[in-house]
Amino acid sequence: MTSQAPTPRRVLVAKPRGYCAGVDRAVQAVEKALERYGAPIYVRKQIVHNTHVVKTLEERGAVFVDETEEVPEDAIVVFSAHGVSPAVHHEAARRRLRTIDATCPLVTKVHNEARRFAAQDYDILLIGHEGHEEVEGTAGEAPERVRLVDGIDAVGTVQVKDPSRLVWLSQTTLSVDETTQTVSRLKERFPNLLDPPSDDICYATQNRQVAVKEIAARAQLVIVVGSSNSSNSKRLVEVALDHGADASHLVDDASFIKDEWLEGVTTVGLTSGASVPEELVAGVLAHLAARGFADVEEIESVHENVRFALPHELRKDLRVTTA
Ligand code: SF4
Predict the structure, then answer these.
(1) Contacts of 251 (CB under 8 A, 6+ apart)
(2) SS3 per residue for 248-308
(3) Ligand 1 midpoint to CA 154 (Å)
(4) CA-CA to 293 of 20 to 30 Å: which in 37, 96, 121, 235?
């Protein structure tokens, strides 16, 4: 009797995945601040939405707070990659805090657009998730002008002052496809709606969605490494399900993977959100290899080569140190 060869089990790993330039810059800002000034360094909110990154920085002396009022006067506070409203900057200045602004430059770009359109008397339809820190920061640039549109279902109810003077902007980490649908529904309701000067959904969010689409079409299961409060990571799960995966799960790390997810699966797709260190992906690969998924292929959809300089407050001091 001939024994049947076992079915080959493989992993398709999406590229690009993991850290984007904005997250890399924000995490480095806290690390360099700890090196340059010593602990404690206060950080308003999670510097990036990843549990492991936050825990690692905490172990090195970062103290995460919800609001600047929790930071002692004259201490150093870092603002997270998601950005803050002008009110937070003013409060920090009033309390004489030394600030390092690690807001991603691509979030700052949306803030600038919000300010500019508000100054030109436009109402701004901001497509984004209610309560997300980035949305709160952007809306805070022109609270009297910004109307939040949280998904396609909100299109019918949003109220504006003047439908002839209207622009839409968005959170940087949304689903590209869903946002396109939301915008076209908004344009049915408001035919004079103006587009932003350039994409607000950032290059990293877009590229990770393109890459996950490619592996989702060829995998029964797509595992997305990322934390549950990470908007771009959650969107990757949705995009994978919309583009061919039978199942998709968000996991903080390999320990969250359930063996039953792998039953009957021959091809697993793997990717990670923009705030996820590569070591967590390596941990998932090792976990899968131990369960027979040793054949690994990386599928590169887009070549990424973006870097941002460290926040200027830090660059200034680091230059002095190394001079
Ligand atoms: S996901 Fe995009 S907007 Fe957010 S930090 Fe990364 S590059 Fe910046």
Answers:
(1) 223, 224, 225, 226, 257, 284
(2) EEEECCHHHCCHHHHCCCCEEEEEECCCCCHHHHHHHHHHHHCCCCCEEEEEECCCCCCCC
(3) 25
(4) 235
CA of 22 to the centre of ligand 1 (A): 5
**Token couple for 51:** 């549990």
* pTM, two decimal places: 0.95
Dihedrals φ, ψ of 14, to 5°?
-75, 145
The pair of structure tokens assigned to 109 is: 């770009």
Residues in the chain with pLDDT < 50? 1, 322-323
Cα 221 to Cα 228: distance, rounded to the nearest angstrom = 18
Structure-block tokens of residue 235: 């969107």
7 near 42, Cβ under 8 Å?
Answer: no
**Residues identified as active-site:** 134
Residue 320 has a pLDDT of 55
